[in-house]
Amino acid sequence: MNRIDLHTHSCCSDGSCTPTELVELAAAAGVGAIALTDHDTVAGIPEFLEAGRRHPEVETVPGVELSTMFSNRELHMVGLFIDPETPVLTAFLEEMREGRRRRNEQIRLKLNALGFPVTWDDPAFAGADSDSASIGRPHFARALMHKYGFPTMQSVFDRLLKRGCAAYVPRELPDPARAIEVIHAAGGIAVWAHPVYRERNERAWAKRIMRRFSPLGLDAVEGYYSMFGPQETALVLELAGLYHLAVSGGSDFHGANSPNIQLGSGAGGLLVPPELLNGLKARCVARRAAVDKPGLP
Ligand code: AMP
Ligand code: MN
Ligand code: MN
Ligand code: MN
Predict the structure, then answer these.
(1) pTM of the complete model
(2) Fewest C-beta atoms under 10 Å: which of 67, 151, 155, 235?
(3) Ligand 1 lined by 132 (C-beta under 6 Å)
């Protein structure tokens, strides 16, 4: 195993590949372990694990990505090694998706008023009527790109959907501590995803979050990420050491919905060391003992 990728999305949320295609891409790229971490849904996990059984050379890690809010900023928690059938988790995810449905309708109404009407039967929203679908702004971006001739999904975000833009609607998001608790209840470990942004000095912010949430059960931080250069990785690794956190990493692959990011290699320079898996699994064993959910990840 020469690399791993512990952050990817399928078409069950805002990626363009099926869970099976993700595992096949991982096998073809020599990615030895891959986590499926869809936003607010675990609907893809059974198919993902099934595909993993056909590709024993790829270790498949069941995961999820939860958006939270702290100090007026969005903070994303990836859960790894989760049991997708845990009732506490499935009820929480249903609550999150219900919030998305309410927000999506508000976004649709705003777009209508702005002269960019879209309808739920647009192919970009295929499957949106299913309870397990996790529909969000990228689906709107795809629909608008095709219908109104925007060159890229990014340009739709920049014109209409980003925070501060006319069709932006905030989500009501839980506190990070709640997401951590739910991930632990499902036998998983909580990873703070993309903790810093390239070219922005966020040392103080990253320290503040790790200092606060490490005692509240945060297990790990993403030290390797598509948008990180060596400086970001060095900063996250240094702070992880300071706050006794394990390190994870992944590409945040969305298939055709983020065309410059490849599975396993990100924007070209990403290489998540396979050795990280051991540290993450050790955390998981310790957590499961604490929540009385024994078993190896
Ligand atoms: P939502 O969960 O509906 O708020 O949508 C968030 C998702 O949209 C993220 O997971 C990204 O995939 C994508 N996204 C968020 N912000 C941007 C942005 N500024 N430009 C492009 N894509 C974005
Ligand atoms: Mn996304
Ligand atoms: Mn995220
Ligand atoms: Mn993600």
Answers:
(1) 0.96
(2) 151
(3) no
